[in-house]
């Protein structure tokens, strides 16, 4: 499935410099590209590679195209243009609608005839699977769940109960949605489990990473609005609410009843304590801990810089004395 | 299944203010309640909602009930009372004892006839499943495991080998107990794997969250005493021992051979290094790292506060200079 | 399967002190050993236990053997020697080559007749399983995967697609290799998914922990060189490259396109940001965040020490003022 520069420019609505007949049959990084590759330059970190790339066609900004002698597609956002181009070269397993003979479907469940239900899938009472949905091998769908049209649960995804997915939700293997929230009350020296009566609601076009967990609500639902994107191994506590278009990188965690706004970016390994509220367009850098609500858009951080361990030990020891040091400094000034 | 205030008061042994005939058919937060809802006020953060709630009945402390005009159930601990009340409204799938036809059970395993073994469950050699235990779809039980009476493995739980669960242990989907501990020795420039010959022992009434991992011991067993409560995505290394009634929030991790006392609370994302000992009643706040043994009950923390990124960068840069700053301060004082 | 001291010394090429006829039938810690146990002393932390151990035979260094009255095996590296000895006592389920009747194998896949394919395993189009490989219950192998000779996928492992394992790779339950990398471009206020066209390549003798996730590359492959050892719940982003013999402890995470050298040790919960390069023999301590490339071997850290929460609060408050404090100190000096 080769494409010419001319065809790519037309399909993707991009400017074209150079030879419109140049043809490529796959994508590559600038460093690894061959004359049969489509490459791209989006991250300025890699600009130096442009001089040496063998890529047949390069997607780049107009400014970067100046002086570039090869065939180029000009894009206002080369990463977006590249994403669209790469989709042309993507191969995916052919759809195979219908139930695999090994699947176990409760008599009260409803599966659309266009849906694809793979090997070793179980579907519980009163659950519904929509048109064009794909449940890959080993998925376990419990009671009272809804899998919307065109959803894809890649493999071994669990929806425990009362999980309702919108349309085109993509969930990667090992993710668990709708497990009990972590609700405990201490009662006469022993833990008493608090029933978790809510569900999970996931909006259209969300993506949920491998081994990510999203607990169901204690009373009301845990909610992801549309187009929320969660990477792998993220933990979302019960009754959390995440606004539309927010993205969270791997291993981030949000404790129970926190509310995250729209268009937020939560860095890898970052944490948000329970019951907090983050407004729209908050950026939290990797491995930071959010300990109070945030009312102003902006970028927030905690932690200390990486240091050689020996130097770090000295700074860390001084951190313990920080209040005393500050008081001594104050006393000196007052003298 | 509606309940009157009078019946709830009697069943839960609570005081009653207002109309004993008020009837509710479900639970709700104060903010979302309708006249058919039972609400509760435990967290003072939500006290302001009491004035506007439409809840038919509210569970609260005597002090909060003063001046409240509606029907109220009076509890010394409203959260505990609410947990018990909510259990009355909880619906769970009906038990279905017996083996699903797809289950694969080794000839040497013993499964109690009252136990429920779901679709696509495998049970290995010499393993035993007790009365009333539930193994949900996709669970994989290896060799020499014991699943005690009334345990519930919700779905897709793995017990690798030599895992012995007490009674009423609840394990959420994706959890893996009894995988090899991470034991390696460097031998002539290559890693040599150290055999992991121990098992995992889990006491009665423990709860283990989704995608949590508990490795089996290298020589002796990894042990959770009774009533330990682990949230999702927790990592417990080999030969760890966790005391009774300790609770750990999501994404916490305990490295090999550490010993945690009873009634400890380990915050989300917190870490405990290997071979350390924590006494009883230690609280570790979220994302703190425990780097030395703790001999005194109390609350412990590490890390820095969340800041606007620009201000944080300045503090972080100064952290690197902290030892030099302290020395300069000392020199000034000595002048 | 008892072994005499003489036989152990011969098999493991170790020195022998004491009675060559002493016989042991299992391994134990020094504290728990009986006369039928083989114990070992490698960690100096446990040297005090030597005086009281009841172990029939102890593996230790020559220096520690001086004055020890019992039977001892002398090793330059007692931990390595113990690992080899323990392997003699390890029992493993007997291999059972062939396909379990419940397994679902695509017609275009090739499974070596010596391989063992367990219950509820699915194998997708064009995938290949080598001689002596073991796929435990519930593994899901997608399209275009290679499982090399003698690999073991313990249970419920997912290889999504284009994952190529070398020989003798050991993967623990719940691990997910080859899921989509987290590639997104913001396009007119919505996320656009970037196709993930690469695969995952894992070298010989790698070990991958329970619930660990390794995404496939966006364009090129994500690569683990030989003998890489990953503990549980580790997250490896797309296009990461990890050098031979590097080991990472539980819950560590490496963001996309980072390159880690050979013989590195990454501590538990540590993070490496995307696109960074770490040279060979870098040690990162637990829960540190690597925010810049590292060109010098050595040990690196970030974070602050664990403190009593009340004292920590005071230091943390001063951390926010650190730049102002440093400026004041500078002003005082200039006076």
TrEMBL record, chains A, B, C:
Keywords: Acyltransferase, Lipid A biosynthesis, Lipid biosynthesis, Lipid metabolism, Repeat, Transferase. This is UDP-3-O-acylglucosamine N-acyltransferase. The active site is at 238 (proton acceptor). Pathway: Bacterial outer membrane biogenesis; LPS lipid A biosynthesis. One of its GO terms (molecular function) is N-acyltransferase activity. SUPFAM superfamilies: Trimeric LpxA-like enzymes. It catalyses: a UDP-3-O-[(3R)-3-hydroxyacyl]-alpha-D-glucosamine + a (3R)-hydroxyacyl-[ACP] = a UDP-2-N,3-O-bis[(3R)-3-hydroxyacyl]-alpha-D-glucosamine + holo-[ACP] + H(+). GO terms for cellular component: membrane. Belongs to the transferase hexapeptide repeat family. LpxD subfamily.
